[in-house]
Design a protein that fits this description.
Blueprint lengths: L11 H5 L4 H17 L3 H7 E4 L2 E4 L2 E4 L6 E6 L3 H12 L3 E9 L10 E5 L6 H16 L5 E6 L3 H4 L9 H14 L3 H8 L9 H6 L4 E6 L19 H10 L8 H11 L15 E7 L1 H14 L3 E9 L3 H18 L7 E7 L14 H11 L7 E7 L11 E5 L2 H7 L4 H6 L3 H8 L2 E2 L10 E7 L1
Parallel strand pairs: 4-5, 4-7, 5-6, 7-8, 8-9, 10-11
Antiparallel strand pairs: 1-2, 2-3, 11-15, 12-13, 12-15, 13-14
Helix pairs in contact: 2-12, 3-4, 8-10, 10-11, 13-14
Length: 455
Amino acid sequence: MEGESQRIIKNFSELVANGPTKIRRDALEIIESGIRSAIPYEETKKLVKLDNYSLLIGEQKINLQEVNNIYVVGVGKGSYPIALALDEILRDKIKEGIVVVKEGEKRRLKYIEVFESSHPLPDERSLVAARKIKAILDKADKNDIVLAAITGGSSALVNLLPPSIDIEELKQLNDLLLKSGASIGKMNAVRKHLCLMKGGRLVTYAHPAPVYTFTLDTAPPDLPWPDLVLPDPSTFKDAIDVLKSYDLWSEVSESIRDYLQKGLHNSAMETPKSLDSYQSYIFSVADPRSTCLAAARKAEELGYNAHILCTAMEGEASQLGIFLAGLVNEISARNQPFSYPCALISAGETTVTITGKCGSGGPNQETALGFVQKLYSKRNAVCVSIDTDGTDGPSQIAGGITDTQTKERAAALNLNLAQYLKEHDSSTALLKLGDAIITGHTGTNVMNLRVVLIE
């Protein structure tokens, strides 16, 4: 059992005491095991080693006597631990470096600059961050190497905009996309065509230097990471189609519409569809599947039959909660399709569609509230849904926990949970219930992680 000072979940004890104690404790222990396994510092240390005059990266061996300069660039909510490992391994061998992190990451590095930017909506800092990265990449030559730490969050953290588009227009676009219910892949088809660094262009700017990227691997391939160093299968037409299909075309600025339409008829503006002519190597240091497997191992250790439902779930967040409740009801009543006691584990990136009044919340909090809307289990059951980076949507809450006693407690507090869901005000409801999960920055970002337990 972890000491409280070592907890990822800062309010662990309070959450445990706020309902059926054992099953809530078990669920939170399982969630913490999953997140802890996805923090990429140790895996980066295992992957990257110095051996006399050689730099070893996995199976690759680089003769440092033939390298003039080592540059390090990083972007993402899980990029700091990777940069920390590189900083400790390479020390003064790093010529210059910068890692762009979400605002609030106060830790600093000795040889790599840590630059705080904005997320989930971009601001002026994302423009400064992109220019700083490009300035480093522009220095790289054929006898240099670039090490890149790229994780989720780059859509807001760095933006190199075309001259005709300003940051306020991009911020409005991102806000519309986040509220539209579009999948992450569709949102990024638009974003990549309005940023001159995304869609694999980081690799092209570093050319002729080779780029070695350390990333948190995610699936399916239409998800955004590591979109700075991968070729982009989407097109300007796809970007326009997404905006039109979600009725956003007339809502975005004229400058954005004009730029996308120009790109439609100018192949030189298109994002790279192949990077085969560049030296680009990608190494995974964590991923949702290994996170789910770690959670499953902890669940088995605690006495539950563990089942990984899916590692790339998408869709409307509250509806996923209702689906999970339906599974629990079936298991509780008929001991099928899984036998209790069991753990249902899943990862992926869900969305929230906002059409009317909007409070404070995020997709994981909506999943937790959606779960209790249709939960009728006579057996104790609990749902924990959390964003592994520690911030769910635009809130400072990581996620939520709800169980078979939540509706009763809500009624005693005169809380209409269905209304809170309707108004997308899940944070307020969970805070009043005492069921909001607080972690702060976790040091990773492998999408969302959900654990449902049935006794």
